Amino acid sequence: MKKRIIPLILIAGTTLLTACNDENTKNSGNPTVTVSKEDAIAVVNGQYISKASLTALESEVAQRGKGQSFPKEKLIEELVQRELLIQDAENKQLDKSADFTQRLTTIRNSLLSQEAVQNFIKSNPITDTDLEAEYKKKVAVSGTEYKARHILVKTEEDANKIIEELNAGADFIELAKNKSTGPSGPKGGDLGWFTADRMVPPFSEAAIALEDGKYTTTPVKTQFGWHVILKEGSRAQTPPPFESVKEQLRPMLQRQKMMDFMKTLRDKAKVEILLPAAEKPVAKDVKADAVKKTSEAVNATENTVNKIAESVQSATKDATTKITDAVEKASDTAAKTVDAVTP
Questions:
Q1: What is the pLDDT of residues 38-64, one digit of tens each?
Q2: Which of 24, 13, 28, 100 minimizes the C-alpha distance to 313?
Q3: pLDDT in the model for residue 321
Q4: Which of 35, 57, 181, 342 is placed for a possible disulfide with 48 were both Cys, Cβ 3.0 to 4.6 Å?
Q5: In this structure, are 109 and 151 located in the same domain?
Q6: 57 and 89 inside one domain
Q7: Looking at residue 142, what DSSP letter applies?
Q8: Per-residue pLDDT, 296
Q9: How far apart are CA 171 and CA 167, in angstroms?
Q10: Given this model, what pLDDT does residue 213 score?
Q11: Pick from 186, 212, 236: which residue ends a domain?
């Protein structure tokens, strides 16, 4: 079976970005890395192609080709074709166009954003002391767990009817399966074991007040509807060992540190949003609106931190794709040549 090599322009995204940045460095007058003849694998119109570029391409092909390998001479030919295209583009001053410069700026800014994140993470590692402190604060907290079931309905009247049926001897689990509107209904209303802080206050307070095996004789109202609660048991909380949750705590602490870092940068910066603010609907409930705004602000900050690496990588990929698409048309002839010589 023939191994058909993919044109370099389509696979070497990382190499292409590096080349673009190198060319940008040349144009800006900054010094560039000089390749000597001893460190080269080929020379094209007086320009040496480094051994390092071949190594990078081999790694790129192996990664994208899921372990496939290609003859070294074919990879070298790909690098030669790429150098020919680069020289042709430079001769035509394609790198001087406003469109190219804008794309290159987008790639550079994306990579710099990503580097800033990685640099902060490396400079502020999470230590075992940090992890132990977080464990003691949020995991190794002594307390009580409760096990309960509930039946959730829309109205107080419906909840009272269910209580009447229970008083008459109806089975709680069967009533939950048939009448509960909550997601736990099909499981007989089973909520498993939980701590008080995991439930909304009205629910947890009612559950805690019950004796084991008893249900609420008056409906409990929360923002989800009306509940009839059955308490099945309680036990002392046993926290998991530190070593078993240690690595789960690490990304949480890294995220928190990154959020603090972003907040520090924002507080020190002078930021002015120039776009006009969107029209806001008249708030019917001022207090609720204020709570919503606060929640949105917190979520926005957290989302910025959680997705910053993903967004900059996505932007880099998008910018690279645009450059690749532009060059791909010029590489059709080279790709056909490779196909022709492929055994």
A1: 999 999 999 999 999 999 999 888 888
A2: 13
A3: 46
A4: 35
A5: no
A6: yes
A7: -
A8: 56
A9: 10
A10: 96
A11: 236
Query: Letter for the amino acid at 53?
Result: S
Which structural domain range is residue 117 located in?
8-123+316-341
Span 292-341, pLDDT tens digits? 554 454 455 445 444 544 544 444 444 444 444 443 444 443 344 333 33
Structure tokens at 85: 């295209």
Spans of the chain below 70 pLDDT:
1-33, 141-142, 280-343
The model's pTM is: 0.49
Report how far apart, in Å, the C-alpha atoms of 332 and of each of 8, 95, 341 are: 11, 20, 15
On whether the CB atoms of residues 196 and 153 are closer than 8 A, the answer is no
pLDDT reported for residue 66: 75
In DSSP terms, 220 is beta-bridged to: 227
Give residue for tokens 């001769």.
91
Q: Half-sphere exposure of 268 toward its Cβ, with a 13 Å CA cutoff?
A: 6
> Is-contact 54 41, C-beta < 8 A?
yes
- Give the number of C-alpha atoms closer than 13 A to the C-alpha of residue 213, restricted to the C-beta side: 0
The residue type found at 235 is: R
Torsion angles phi and psi, residue 234, rounded to 5: -150, 155
173 within 8 A of 182, measured Cβ to Cβ: no
Q: Is residue 253 part of a domain?
A: no
Could you tell me if 255 and 304 are in contact, meaning their C-beta atoms sit under 8 angstroms apart?
Answer: no
Residues 6+ apart with CB under 8 A from 64: 6, 11
